[in-house]
Design brief:
single chain, 744 residues, mainly beta, Jelly Rolls, 4 domains, 15-stranded mixed β-sheet
Length: 744
């Protein structure tokens, strides 16, 4: 029985959530979104007096004798109001959904209100909702089991001067069981992004600071970056990876962002305030050209793990870290002492507390006044208050420093800023025990937004060896593997890595190997990671072959385990169109014991075939291949080209050989080999058509070109390094491709 196989893609299933999920709402929607809220008759209001202040830029203490005055890049947006709010301040009532408790907090003159709970003891089924008076924004369905540590939690600011806290205990008709208390309120005297709804504010102009959503290739790094707020101050920071790649939630930001009283010491009150600190990830535009923000995902609480005033760095550990399914990544880092190359590094940050922006550097160098800092100037964008602590990334997406302060602004885009060097923070802050006890020079990013299962994609039908498959070994996670019957599980079930081998008793198949990762932290705690593995199937691949026997043909060779074994392949047409063997022009729809075939392009550029392989292990299963002939070297049907010499040292010649009749009558019985072969010129043949030739390197960079010429083109290769290149010859809108070796 013939078995045909199709290829499946590895997949990761996750849904981006958070411990505190902020959503847009409306007066019409909110009655449907909150159980029992529409039945509420009255809500108690507790009012606090407040006189708004004006934000003042902090003056930073000079380091290493710095005589200059820098612009502070921390965003001071709120004052801290000490309060005593408890259950007695609200009102308990009954609804069809269960018992509810509600309280409205009013602070006239406040631009926004944030909350710090010093007690948060919801019953196991209770749900808490917080929303503003305008009912435009809501923190939805907060539950105690969303948190790893819930004795203190922080709530990001809501725009306006009134907010409502609503707790419902579903199906509870008895005593109300939940208990909460609030000891601090952040009272905003300045607007901050994400506090009203998804609409944008004005401060962080996209002309000055481009949005990160216009750089999709930066999004893996962007998923490690968060807006950090504590004690009424906001900055930016980055989750960083460690040598174990285990998802330990270490967060790097600037010392001065925590130093609210500017005394160059982290006081006990500033350290204690970290228990209610907030980390807002994925706060960005919902697309590149949009005027609306995604509201992000929030995590709360941290402890101080390391700090140094000398390099202006702190490393925090999140006490309620993201879960495996929350789509958060961990940036790499590098202790490099040489500056990143010009135009290669970048900064991801939240200027003025707004949606995430990206700034590209023009150059980075040592700071003139002290070697513990970099100085960066920018090619596009600047940094602003709210950017403090943002990571300076090198071209490998590794953090090499964090923003201290400087002189750039939207008015002075040519001015630079300085960044504490990660290489000096390593020793000054004692980062080695946290990040790399082995003393690694660098660590690469940990990407959890798309988890990749490592391991072979093919276990050949001759392969009886053991194979290892693995995913990141994350703290707080358990693992359960689903191994198909095509494989034998040798060891590793319930760990992050398993060992398997081929089950020879089962027919060959493309099968999915799946692991379910269950996290004990975060909001989205379950992720399924799958990998398609072809088991018992010969590792047959396709490759370019020798020059075709006639211009309209394309030759495709067969490989087994990435080598050319010779004439051990059987091939059949799956689309009904014929092909020819390499040594004749006799069309056929099935051939035995051939190393490859040639396709006639007059039947179309897309062909389908089935192939099997025979060796000492026996005959493999048939495999299905869909082929785009444009992916393989071929010649336009109207012309042939003589390309010489190959290999080439100084000058490559490309000569047009016109074709006035079908070459099949001339080439019948000839043999194609891997040597360079060209059609010979025909008598009295002449062409007035122009053609072009372009030589590319393996990165598709043009290294030599001759745009349009008649009859013959020469390309100078004297300055081209030795290596493999690809020649594209275009005539009459059709392109032929040929591999060229440059050897001096």
């Amino acid at each position: 029985m013939r078995i045909l196989f199709s290829v499946f893609l590895s997949i990761l299933i996750f849904s981006a959530k958070a411990q505190i999920l902020r959503v847009a709402t409306s007066a019409q929607k909110i009655n449907r979104q909150i159980p029992g809220y529409s039945e509420l008759k009255t809500i108690n209001t507790k009012t606090f007096n407040y006189s708004p202040k004006v934000s003042k830029a902090k003056i930073l203490t000079p380091i290493d004798g710095d005589p200059k005055t820098e612009i502070n890049k921390t965003d001071h947006y709120a004052d801290i109001l000490s309060v005593a709010i408890g259950m007695a301040d609200g009102k308990i009532s009954s609804s069809s959904a269960g018992k509810v408790w509600a309280l409205r907090i009013s602070i006239p003159n406040a631009l926004n209100i944030g909350l710090i709970f010093n007690s948060f003891d919801l019953s196991p089924t209770a749900e808490m909702y917080i929303f503003n008076d305008q009912k435009t924004i809501m923190d939805s369905c907060i539950k105690k089991n969303n948190f790893t540590v819930s004795n203190t939690i922080g709530i990001s600011p809501f725009g306006g001067n009134n907010i409502t806290i609503y707790i419902v205990e579903p199906n509870n008709s008895g005593d109300f069981k939940s208990s909460i208390s609030i000891n601090k309120i952040e009272v905003g005297f300045k607007e901050i992004g994400g506090s009203k709804d998804g609409t944008l504010m004005r401060e962080a102009s996209t002309n000055c600071n481009p949005t990160v959503m216009c750089r999709p290739y930066m999004m893996n790094s962007a998923r490690a970056v968060a807006r950090f707020s504590s004690n009424g101050f906001a900055g930016t920071g980055t989750l960083i990876n460690n040598e174990y790649n285990n998802g330990k939630a270490y967060f790097l930001t600037a010392f001065h962002v925590l130093d609210a009283d500017e005394n160059d010491v982290l006081d006990p009150s500033e350290i204690a305030a970290l228990s209610g600190a907030r980390f807002l990830f994925q706060f960005w535009r919902n697309n590149c050209l949009s005027s609306v923000n995604d509201l992000g995902i929030q995590f709360t609480g941290a402890i101080l793990k390391a700090s140094s005033k000398e390099t202006d760095v702190v490393v925090l550990e999140l006490t309620n870290p993201p879960g495996v399914g929350d789509g958060v990544n961990y940036a790499g880092w590098n202790r490099q002492t040489t500056a990143p190359a010009d135009y290669s590094s970048y900064i991801l940050h939240h200027p003025n507390g707004e949606d995430m922006r990206i700034t590209d550097t023009r150059d980075v160098g040592d700071w003139f006044w002290g070697n513990k800092f970099w100085t960066a100037h920018y090619a596009e964008g600047v940094v602003s208050p709210g950017s403090s602590g943002a990571g300076l990334f090198n071209q490998y997406d590794q953090v090499v420093g964090q923003l201290r302060g400087g002189w750039s602004s939207c008015d002075f885009t040519d001015f630079g800023d300085r960044y504490g060097k990660f290489s000096y923070s390593w020793g000054d802050a004692g980062l080695q025990p946290l990040l790399s006890p082995s003393g690694n020079q660098a660590v690469n990013p940990l990407i959890l937004s798309t988890i990749i299962m490592n391991g072979d994609e093919n276990i050949d039908y001759c392969d009886n060896n053991n194979h290892t498959y693995s995913v990141p070994n994350l703290v707080g996670c358990s693992y359960s593997w689903n191994v198909p019957n095509t494989l034998n599980l040798i060891s590793g079930q319930y760990t992050s890595s398993i060992v398997v081998n081929r089950n020879a008793a089962v027919l060959p198949a493309y099968t999915q190997l799946t692991v379910t990762i269950t996290d004990s932290k975060g909001y989205s705690r379950i992720v399924n990671v799958s990998k398609t593995v072809q088991v018992g199937i010969a590792n047959i691949t396709l490759a370019s072959g020798p020059p075709p026997p006639a211009p309209r043909y394309v030759t495709v060779m067969f490989k087994y385990n990435n080598v050319y074994p010779g004439s051990y392949f059987d091939v059949e047409s799956a689309d009904g169109n014929p092909f020819i063997p390499l040594n004749t022009l006799n069309p056929a729809t099935n051939l035995q014991n051939v190393p490859g075939v040639s396709f006639d392009t007059t039947y179309g550029m897309y062909r389908t075939i089935t192939v099997r392989y025979t060796n000492t292990c026996g005959v493999s299963a048939w495999q299905h291949f869909a082929i785009n002939l444009d992916d393989y070297p071929h010649l336009p049907a109207s012309s042939a080209f003589k390309v010489y010499p190959n290999p080439v040292s100084s000058e490559l010649s490309v000569e047009l050989v016109p074709i006035n009749e079908d070459l099949t009558t001339q080439l019948t019985g000839t043999t194609s080999t891997f040597q360079n072969q060209v059609a010979q010129p025909q008598a009295n043949a002449k062409s007035n058509s122009r053609f072009s030739a372009v030589l590319y390197d393996i990165r598709r960079k043009v290294v030599a070109t001759n745009p349009f010429a008649k009859d013959k083109i020469t390309l100078n290769t004297t300055t081209i390094p030795n290596g493999t290149y690809f020649l594209h010859i275009t005539k009459d809108g059709k392109t032929s491709k040929q591999q060229i070796i440059v050897s001096h």
